[in-house]
Amino acid sequence: MRIVVTGAGGLLGKKIVKVFSNYEVIGVYYSSKPETPNFLQLNLSDLKEIKKIGDLSPDVIIHAAALTDVDKCEKQPELARLLNVEVTKEIAKLSKETDSFLVYVSTDYVFDGEKGNYREDDKPNPINVYGRTKLEGEEMVKKYADKYLIVRTSTPYGSNPASGKDNFALWLLKKLKNREEIGVVTDQITSPTLNTNFALMLRESVERKLEGILHLTDASQISRFEFAITLAKVFGLSESLIKPVTSDLMRWLAKRPKNSSLNVSMASAILSQKPMTVEKALKLLKEEVESGG
Q1: 30 noted as active-site residue
Q2: What is the residue-wise DSSP string for 90-155?
Q3: Is the pLDDT confidence value at 146 over 80?
Q4: What's the start-to-end Cα distance of the chain, in Å?
Q5: What percent of the chain shows pLDDT beyond 70?
Q6: Of the residues 29, 104, 118, 130, which is catalytic?
Q7: CATH fourth-level superfamily of 2-159+192-220+260-276
Q8: For the residues 234-240, what does the mean pLDDT come to?
């Protein structure tokens, strides 16, 4: 099975290519080089370049590349639309032309956050440009791809920086190890997801050719503040450095959903690789950080 992964140098992409290493994997990237022997550097924003993915004759395309900076999407909606909608449209059309199975990585931000614990069949209602463009990407997949799986995830984190940036967990660790006080919001609830477990759940989903929409997050639905406190406990760092704040004090350009947590009962029921509790996931993160993996 030949698998092409876009965004292969990113937070999720790096783990995806790693867990699929027993297959023929080709990592597509723009600036952050993937950790795979076979790779292809492409500027996906040049839509004509996308046809080069088809030249690879993929059996599976995992489309993980996106503009995920929520505030940058708000500031540059045309760029967000190009990268999250138009690129996805071309990849979806390409998957049909090459008779390949398409996996599209989407987000909890397709929901408005008014109720949380969203199921796969709940009606999306995004409240920012990022969420709207990712939802439009989902619609492109449904319209143009023949065989597809849309996977939604939430607040991914891991032991690897991506594109030179720390994810939320690594940012917390750096601050706490330097004994710096940090303010973390108490009123934004998500389903934080360790990229390793996401990738393992994704591998099983691809191997079984599951189709439709599937929420692939870890099992805990908690605030960023609760996540930070749990991380401090697992790593043996000072919880007193973590100060509760509310989101109205944050200088965010884009609105954030208050509770975009995802229900993972379907994944828990059908997958052998189960969603993890936040405690279990953070213990695995600790092992990875300490082993350099």
Answers
A1: no
A2: HHHHHHHHTT-EEEEEEEGGGS-SSS--B-TTSPP---SHHHHHHHHHHHHHHHH-SSEEEEEE-S
A3: yes
A4: 26
A5: 99
A6: 130
A7: NAD(P)-binding Rossmann-like Domain (3.40.50.720)
A8: 97
